[in-house]
Automatic annotation (TrEMBL):
Residue ranges occupied by any PPM-type phosphatase domain in the UniProt entry: 348-573
Entry keyword set: Hydrolase
UniProt KW Flavoprotein keyword: no
SUPFAM superfamilies: ATPase domain of HSP90 chaperone/DNA topoisomerase II/histidine kinase, GAF domain-like, PP2C-like, PYP-like sensor domain (PAS domain)
InterPro entries in UniProt: Bact_Sigma-Reg, GAF, GAF-like_dom_sf, HATPase_C_sf, HATPase_dom, PAS, PAS-like_dom_sf, PAS_fold
Hydrolase found in the keyword field: yes
CDD domains noted in UniProt: HATPase_RsbW-like, PAS
Domain GAF, first and last residues per copy: 142-327
Domain of life per record: Bacteria
GO MF annotation list: phosphatase activity
GO biological process: regulation of DNA-templated transcription
Name of this chain's protein: Uncharacterized protein
Annotated source species: Kitasatospora phosalacinea
């Protein structure tokens, strides 16, 4: 066995790329290599023989390492040393390593754990005597072990309060008797921190005494700091401070703070360290370390250790602050782009939920929509944009707008997805760096499910682009997952989409969702578990669609925040009564115009809305004249009463769509559609497999 040779440890620093960036005098004495020969060279060249696997593993994982290695020397045989390596981060967040090497000599004693900056601290504080050196080395080992713990435990989440508490929990273990972490109020607002005010919030604290009775401020409470307090001095200077409670300046400050003075005397607080929490050039707050049970006051080495601890914590706090700011921005954008309520329509009753992801990735691009269409139909949409954060939310907004635009011209589901795919591909190509490929570097890759439900025929046409299919709950609560043609995700280009049509009985529930709803079960290793839970939740009795939404989320996600965004859209189908729909077939003959007017007038009288007859006759005359003059057989005529709206539809076998134009004085035609547009609240054309349908809606 071997033990260290008492004396000053050789220390060095190495950047994240493995290059030596710092070289101590002790390291030069141990190896015989001057700083000029070592700085800027790979650190691995200093080792003799193979690099230990444990050291390689620690380097890859950015974890502390302690163990024996062989170190090259300039003119002598390689030396066996115990190497300690501790990962740290600079104020800019750049990874670096602090190395310490102590020579070994054969002895029948077990190896102790070597540590980097602690060995330097031990050498500075030791007397030549072996007993003193050993005591200092023990303290040094504890200090660096504490640094190693800090590297593993501080910053485990992107939560400001949790990170501050991790700092307090680590520092209370053999270093301080009390730790308080105070942050500026602006840290919680997500905006840039400001040092203009002297109001801190105690976000975390820990004591060796239960309940932290020596603290003058409760956790979560604001604290107003007087200008001559040590906290204010640290904030103003940006430098750490070590002080004795017998210091006249401290006594003068405590005289203005009766409660702090009482607690200091009651618990015997005698020594304090205060270090600013500074990251990326910005001061976020102050960490306070006190001693009252430990008799030794803080020394200069303790000050260095506290500075390193707070530097790590400050970087993690700033990461959490920036993450919070970006997440809040993305979430606000996401919510502003999603519908807060659905438009009134007779085809379906809807309920929906949107839950943002709770993990480090942040808000994603999940979305949904309910779009009224002509003929009392409705479009139901869910989609999922690749990525997270503001870019995903912005891309989602573009896609939702595009879908609404394409739906407005009444495209069938498969055609709509084809046009949407072209749009995504064009956006990707516009945003790609030169030489990139559309999908590999895609910024807007997405999936989508688009469905159109017709309450007259009680049918639903659906098409999907890389998206999970829907669930269908029948009136008897039986749940099925209809098989739809699996279209490719949006953004690939050149691949076809296919639509399927389902018969949907009145009172059925269509469930459209994003894959985040199933992700929790998939992470547990069972991809089918999510569908089973979804099916069971949908089949269970619920008082309303809103209750069913909550029931589904509870069953599939459980109590934890989702690991991915979740969008859920439930639609209970309605059917228009047969008495509210009138349908006729017409011959390709101009005389059919007069017959259609009579049929319409009679039907309006049957419905008790004779007051709409005059406008309806004009609309019917214009639309059927247009179909007879320019269209092809077969010609159909339909009236639909949908609540307070009367819909007139004329279909023919031609795919040529009419266009609204302003007729000139000498023109014989061109005034019909202008008249329809002026008399009705809305009108338009939709293409069908057999031709087209021109429709017009009147307010009753």
């Amino acid at each position: 066995m071997a033990t260290r040779v008492p004396g000053r440890a050789a220390t060095a620093t190495v950047d994240g790329g493995g290059t030596v960036t710092g070289w101590s005098v002790a390291a030069e004495r141990l190896t015989g290599f001057g700083a000029g020969l070592v700085l800027g060279r790979p650190a691995v060249e200093l080792l003799a023989g193979q690099v230990p696997i444990a050291l390689l593993r620690a380097a890859v994982r950015h974890e502390p390492f302690s163990g024996m290695v062989r170190l090259r020397r300039s003119e002598e045989e390689p030396a066996s040393v115990e190497l300690g390596a501790v990962p740290v981060r600079t104020a800019r967040g750049e990874p670096t390593w602090v190395l310490s090497a102590l020579p070994l000599q054969p002895l029948s004693q077990p190896l102790a754990v070597a540590t980097a900056g602690a060995a330097e601290a031990a050498a500075r504080s030791a007397a030549p005597g072996g007993a003193v050196a050993g005591s200092s080395e023990v303290r040094a080992r504890k200090r660096l072990a504490l640094l190693g713990e800090a590297g593993l435990r501080i910053g485990s989440t992107l939560e400001v309060e949790r990170t501050a508490q991790e700092l307090a929990d680590v520092a209370i273990e053999g270093f301080a008797d009390f730790v308080g972490v105070d942050l500026l109020d602006s840290v919680f607002g997500g905006g840039p921190p400001s040092s203009a005010g002297l109001v801190f919030y105690r976000v975390a604290q820990r004591s060796v005494l239960p309940g932290s009775p020596e603290s003058a401020v409760a956790a979560g409470i604001g604290d107003v700091i007087v200008p001559d307090s040590p906290m204010a001095r640290v904030l103003a200077s940006g430098r750490p401070l070590r002080t004795d409670y017998r210091d006249p300046e401290i006594r003068s400050w405590l005289a203005q703070e009766p409660e702090r003075e009482r607690l200091a005397e009651e618990f015997g607080i005698h020594s304090a360290l205060l270090a600013p929490l500074t990251a990326r050039g910005v001061t976020l707050g102050v960490a306070i370390f006190l001693r009252h049970r430990s008799p030794e006051p803080f020394d200069e080495d303790d000050l260095l250790l506290a500075t390193e601890l707070t530097a790590r914590a400050a970087l993690s706090v700033d990461n959490a602050r920036q993450y919070t700011q970006q997440r809040d921005t993305a979430l606000a954008l996401q919510r502003s782009l999603l519908p807060s309520r659905t438009p009134r329509q007779a085809a379906v009753e809807v309920a929906f939920r949107y839950l943002p992801a709770g993990g480090r990735e942040g808000v994603g691009g999940d979305w949904f929509d309910v779009i009224p269409l002509s003929g009392a139909r409705v479009a139901l949409v869910v989609g999922d944009v690749v990525g997270h954060g503001v870019p995903a939310s912005a891309a989602m907004g573009r896609l939702r707008t595009a879908v609404r635009t394409l739906a407005d011209i009444d495209m069938p589901p498969d055609e709509l997805l084809t046009h949407l795919d072209d749009l995504v591909l064009r956006v990707d190509l516009d945003e790609l760096p030169e030489g990139g490929t559309a999908w590999a570097g895609s910024s807007v890759g997405a999936t989508c499910l688009y469905a159109v439900y017709d309450p007259v025929t009680r049918s639903c046409a659906l098409a999907r682009a890389g998206h999970p299919g829907p669930a269908l709950v029948g009136p008897d609560n039986a749940v099925t997952f209809p098989e739809l043609p699996a279209g490719p995700p949006l953004g690939l280009g050149g691949l076809p989409f296919e639509a399927a049509e389902l018969n949907v009985p009145e009172g059925s529930v269509l469930a459209l969702y994003t894959d985040g709803l199933l992700r929790a079960s998939e992470l547990r290793g069972d991809p089918e578990l999510g569908l089973d839970r979804l099916g069971s939740a949908l089949a269970a009795t619920a008082g309303s669609l809103e209750d069913l939404c909550d029931q589904v989320l509870s069953a599939t996600l459980g109590p934890d925040a989702p690991t991915d965004d979740v969008a859920l859209l439930l639609a209970r189908t309605r059917a228009l009564p047969a008495r509210d729909v009138a349908d006729w077939s017409l011959r390709h003959d101009p005389s059919e115009v007069a017959r259609a007017r009579k049929l319409a007038t009679a039907k309006l009288a049957d419905w008790g809305i004779e007051e709409a007859s005059f406008v309806t006759e004009l609309v019917v005359s214009e639309l059927i004249t247009n179909a007879v003059r320019y269209g092809r057989t077969p010609i159909g005529f339909r009236l639909i009463r949908d609540g307070g709206v009367l819909i007139c539809e004329v279909s023919d076998g031609s795919s040529t769509a009419p266009h609204l134009r302003r007729a000139r004085t000498e023109d014989e035609g061109g005034r019909g559609l202008l008249l329809v547009a002026q008399l009705c609240r809305n009108w338009g054309t939709r293409h069908t497999p057999r031709g087209k349908t021109i429709w017009a809606e009147q307010e009753l």
